[in-house]
């Protein structure tokens, strides 16, 4: 005759049929915890990637508008070499910002 203890396949660590007898964790619980941690980190990283990309695009758009407005003003005077140089720098900043927005939008 088989006793109840033998039939329940209890092990030395207090785990009976996948259920912890003395409140300890089982292998299934630790695997679920590890899966949860991986999924949680991946979701959090994905959300911050989206938010971060959106903020970066908005920053580049604002930078592009400022750069192009400086370029418009600087290149509009045309006579003063200092204003012309500032206008060219503004134009360069605006073009770089526009290219960065294009790269971020097409990724």
TrEMBL record:
The organism's place on the tree of life at top rank: Archaea
Region Disordered, annotated ranges: 1-30
Annotated protein name in UniProt: Uncharacterized protein
Alphabetically ordered keywords of this record: Membrane, Transmembrane, Transmembrane helix
TM spans (from-to): 50-75, 81-103
Biased composition (Low complexity): 8-26
């Amino acid at each position: 005759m088989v006793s109840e203890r033998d039939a329940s396949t209890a092990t030395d660590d207090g785990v009976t049929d996948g259920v912890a007898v003395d409140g300890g964790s089982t292998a299934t619980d630790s695997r679920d915890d590890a899966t949860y941690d991986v999924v949680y980190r991946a979701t959090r990283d994905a959300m911050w990637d989206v938010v971060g990309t959106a903020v970066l695009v908005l920053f580049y758009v604002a930078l592009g508008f400022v750069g192009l407005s400086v370029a418009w003003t600087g290149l509009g005077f045309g006579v003063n070499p200092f204003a012309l140089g500032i206008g060219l720098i503004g134009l360069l900043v605006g073009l770089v910002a526009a290219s960065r927005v294009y790269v971020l939008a097409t990724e």
